[in-house]
């Protein structure tokens, strides 16, 4: 079965790319190992444990591909402020959307909500062929085309294949793409909790001796007391915390968060995720491109992973549409190199920043503790520096694709 473009992975990033190219006149197949079924949703449903902090740029992309209304119609929790502090010192920073005349810094949204809104948009459009329950077994290139062999024996071919199949990308592995990667030696515990005090539409982050702890604001049926937590701890600590019953876990979590929102009253089932940083040495080769977590995974310190992936999708769509307008081949390495040149520096800079923060706040040496506290206090005292951070959080700086621009 021949196509112009095969996207492997119908998650948030792959589905966004498919929608961004739906009017290009291409034969597009969107292949995924899952069933690609939209789950029933009710406003009273429990929160999914995995969430993303969608920036203003990501919201704009999702609006333009027709998915944001489906997200807002389900559940999206805006946040207007961010408070960060060092649990081992006195340094703290407060960021506010109002400081740059913005209404919000972003939205905390469950990944499943984003995914289902994208699937709804794909179903409503109908121009992209969905191939569900399709596990990739083999990948080979012959005379300029890539042929994908699925577990059921079906074969698909296209001149261009895009890997959007996550951090453990089968496409990246089968195509022999090399990566640089290392283990953070930390795990992230994620869940949703209800606190005694409302979340104030604020993203809270405390740097503890074990790792960063984030409380991200959620809202369910008008109740602002909920938060999504991401707690980064050592593997030993993660095992200990996951073994606690709910009562003991709530107490440990409240202490670690310094009871900024009062007692933790309820806790949903917990997930524990090993943290590993990974970056492909190249994002492209002839007829192949990597986007999203297939190209790069970073520490969840600032919730930037999905924002980077959505920008990958928007830039790649822009590059491919420009190539079509020129009559160039989509699989031409020179075309795909334009995508890599635009995205790799930005992704590497974000990864380096997250790595630097993670190392600085894990440091026990007294000079480094002093440095980070002075740094936090210094930024807090400089409105211009804070505004720069806020614009970065909004995702509205740098080389933005047209889909992300206001």
TrEMBL record:
Stated name of the protein: 2-octaprenyl-3-methyl-6-methoxy-1,4-benzoquinol hydroxylase
Matching PANTHER family: UBIQUINONE BIOSYNTHESIS MONOOXYGENASE COQ6, MITOCHONDRIAL (PTHR43876)
Claim: Flavoprotein is one of the keywords in the record: yes
One annotated GO molecular function: 2-polyprenylphenol 6-hydroxylase activity
Keywords: FAD, Flavoprotein, Monooxygenase, Oxidoreductase
Cofactor(s), names only, from the UniProt record: FAD
UniProt pathway annotation: Cofactor biosynthesis; ubiquinone biosynthesis
Alphabetized Gene3D superfamilies for the sequence: FAD/NAD(P)-binding domain
NCBIfam families (alphabetical): PRK05714.1, Ubi-OHases
Domain named FAD-binding: residues: 3-350
GO annotation (BP), single: ubiquinone biosynthetic process
Ranges annotated as spanning the membrane: none
Keyword Nucleotide-binding: no
Gene Ontology annotations for the cellular component aspect, listed alphabetically: ubiquinone biosynthesis complex
PROSITE patterns: UBIH (PS01304)
């Amino acid at each position: 079965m021949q196509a112009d473009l095969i996207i492997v992975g119908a998650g948030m990033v792959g589905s966004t790319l498919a929608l961004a190219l739906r009017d290009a006149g291409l034969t597009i197949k969107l292949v995924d190992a899952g069933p690609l079924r939209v789950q029933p949703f009710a406003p009273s449903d429990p929160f999914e444990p995995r969430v993303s902090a969608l920036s203003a740029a990501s919201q704009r992309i999702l609006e333009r591909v027709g998915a944001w209304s489906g997200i807002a119609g389900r559940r999206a929790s805006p946040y207007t402020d961010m408070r960060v502090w060092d649990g081992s010192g006195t340094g703290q920073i407060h960021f506010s959307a109002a400081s740059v005349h913005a209404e919000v810094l972003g939205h905390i949204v469950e990944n499943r909500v984003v995914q289902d809104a994208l699937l709804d948009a794909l179903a409503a459009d109908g121009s992209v062929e969905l191939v569900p329950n399709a596990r990739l077994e083999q990948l080979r290139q012959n005379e300029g085309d890539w042929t994908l062999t699925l577990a059921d024996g079906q074969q698909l071919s296209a001149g261009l294949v895009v890997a959007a199949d996550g951090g453990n990308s089968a496409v990246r592995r089968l195509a022999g793409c090399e990566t640089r990667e290392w283990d953070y030696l930390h795990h992230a515990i994620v869940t949703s909790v209800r606190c005694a005090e409302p979340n104030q539409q604020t993203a809270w982050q405390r740097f503890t001796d074990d790792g960063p702890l984030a409380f991200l604001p959620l809202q369910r049926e008008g109740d602002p007391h909920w938060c999504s937590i991401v707690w980064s701890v050592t593997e030993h600590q993660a095992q200990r915390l996951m073994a606690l019953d709910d009562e003991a876990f709530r107490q440990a979590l409240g202490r670690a968060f310094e009871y900024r929102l009062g007692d933790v009253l309820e806790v949903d089932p917990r997930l524990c995720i090993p943290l590993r940083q990974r970056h492909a040495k190249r994002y492209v080769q002839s007829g192949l491109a990597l986007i999203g977590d297939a190209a790069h995974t970073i520490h969840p310190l600032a919730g930037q992973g999905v924002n980077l992936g959505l920008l990958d999708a928007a830039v790649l769509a822009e590059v491919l549409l420009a190539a079509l307008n020129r009559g160039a081949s989509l699989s031409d390495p020179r075309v795909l190199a334009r995508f890599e040149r635009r995205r790799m520096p930005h992704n590497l800079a974000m990864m380096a920043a997250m790595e630097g923060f993670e190392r600085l706040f894990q440091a026990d040496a007294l000079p480094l503790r002093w440095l980070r506290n002075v740094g936090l206090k210094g930024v807090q005292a400089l409105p211009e520096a804070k505004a720069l951070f806020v614009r970065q959080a909004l995702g509205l700086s740098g080389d933005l694709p047209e889909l992300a621009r206001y």
